[in-house]
Write a structure and sequence with these properties.
By secondary structure, this protein is an alpha/beta fold. Helix content is 30%, strand content 17%. The chain has a single domain, classed as HybD-like (Rossmann fold, 3-Layer(aba) Sandwich). It has a 5-stranded mixed β-sheet with strand order 2-1-3-5-4, sandwiched between helices. α2 runs parallel beside α5 and α3 crosses α4.
Length: 159
C-alpha cells in the first residue's frame, strides 16, 4: 500500500472517523460496507457505514467531533480492479454517477461547516458495479488490506 494511504489511515491525537459508502447489492460497490463491517471501533477509532445514503450520517459524524475523517468508497479512476488511491477532493465530480445521490466531497463540506477535521478520500477501483452481492477477489483483497492497516495503526490485532 502506498505511504500516502497509510498516512491517511494513521491515528492522530484525537478521534479518527472512517466513513464508508457503497451499495452491497452492486458487486464491488459494496467494498465500503464490507470495510466498515471489518473495523472494530475503539475510543479513538469510530466507523460509520453510510451505505448508499451518506447524506443521512452528517449529524452523527459531527457529533463525534473527529480530528480526522477518512471517506472510503469504490471509485472508478480507470485502473486495475482493487487498486487503492488517495483521491484529491478537487478530483471528485460535483455531480454523481455513483450509487449514492450526493458526492462524498459535498458531504465532507457539510460536515466541515460544523467542525474542523482533516479529511481524506480513499477510492478502490471496482471491476463491476452491476447488480450482485459478490465482490471480485482483487477488490476484496484491497478491502482486507485497508482493514488490516487500520487495525495495525490503532494497535488492534486483525481477525
Amino acid at each position: 500500500m502506498k505511504k500516502e494511504i497509510e498516512e491517511a489511515l494513521r491515528p492522530g491525537t484525537g478521534v479518527t472517523l472512517i466513513i464508508t459508502a457503497g451499495n452491497s447489492f452492486r458487486q464491488d460497490d459494496g467494498v465500503g460496507p464490507y470495510i466498515a463491517s471489518g473495523i472494530r471501533p475503539t475510543s479513538t477509532l469510530k466507523v460509520i457505514n453510510a451505505g448508499y445514503t451518506p447524506e443521512n450520517i452528517i449529524e452523527e459524524a459531527v457529533s463525534l467531533n473527529p480530528q480526522s475523517i477518512v471517506f472510503i468508497d469504490a471509485a472508478d479512476f480507470n485502473s486495475q480492479a482493487g487498486d487503492i488511491r488517495l483521491i484529491p477532493e478537487e478530483s471528485i465530480p460535483e455531480t454523481t454517477v455513483s450509487t449514492h445521490m450526493i458526492p462524498l466531497n459535498i458531504i465532507s463540506r457539510l460536515i466541515a461547516d460544523s467542525i474542523k477535521s482533516k479529511i481524506a478520500f480513499i477510492g478502490i477501483q471496482p471491476k463491476s458495479t452491476q447488480f450482485g452481492e459478490d465482490m471480485c477477489p482483487e477488490v476484496k483483497s484491497a478491502a482486507d488490506t485497508i482493514v488490516r492497516t487500520i487495525h495495525q495503526g490503532f494497535g488492534r490485532p486483525t481477525l
